Amino acid sequence: MKNKIKKQHFARYIFAFAIIIIGATLEIYNIGKEFFSFQAVGSWMIYVGFIMLAVITLQIIVNKKRIVDERMSWIAFKASRITFVLLILGAFIVMIADGIKNITLPYHLFMGYAMSYMMLVYFISYKILERYS
Fold first, then answer.
1. Do 11 and 57 share a domain, yes or no?
2. Which of 14, 19, 38, 41 is nearest to 29 (CA)?
3. Which candidate in 23, 29, 91, 118 could, as Cys together with 46 as Cys, close a disulfide (CB 3.0–4.6 Å)?
4. Which of 15, 13, 45, 12 is nearest to 28 (CA)?
5. How far apart are CA 67 and CA 56, in angstroms?
6. pLDDT tens for residues 8-34?
7. Smallest Cα–Cα separation from 55: which of 18, 23, 16?
8. Is the pTM for the entire model greater than 0.85?
9. What is the pLDDT of residue 65?
């Protein structure tokens, strides 16, 4: 079992380094345009590769055994359902607001706010469900 985990981490490291190398190659040959507020796709891939390396290293260092019972699974399912419904409602409100007045927010900022909104809704709904169930 331990050998399998080491192979998985090794494969993840290889994938992260591959993304960094591909990003550096794209940067060297100046391929790609502005992407999510980065100068080019290559610099974005390099950034994501280093983030992946950091996350993989943290997963190896902080390896806790968590006990997940049926109640926690049920709470997580309900919280994700609430998040999905509120995401659809939020998208509908954004479409109506965009129809009334054009939204001039850059796409990368809009997606950043949308992801923050989803994480916040999930966290709040999870904590409420955990407390009252």
1. yes
2. 41
3. 23
4. 45
5. 21
6. 888 889 999 999 998 888 888 877 666
7. 16
8. no
9. 76
In terms of Cβ atoms closer than 10 Å to its own Cβ (0-12, 13-18, 19+), residue 54 is exposed
Q: Does residue 36 carry a pLDDT above 60?
A: no
Q: Fill in the amino acid letter for 52.
A: M
My answer on whether 78 and 41 are in the same domain is: no
Same domain, 55 and 106: no
Number of domains the chain contains: 2
The string of DSSP codes covering 72-123 is: HHHHHHHHHHHHHHHHHHHHHHHHHHHHHS-----HHHHHHHHHHHHHHHHH
Domain interval for residue 110: 70-132
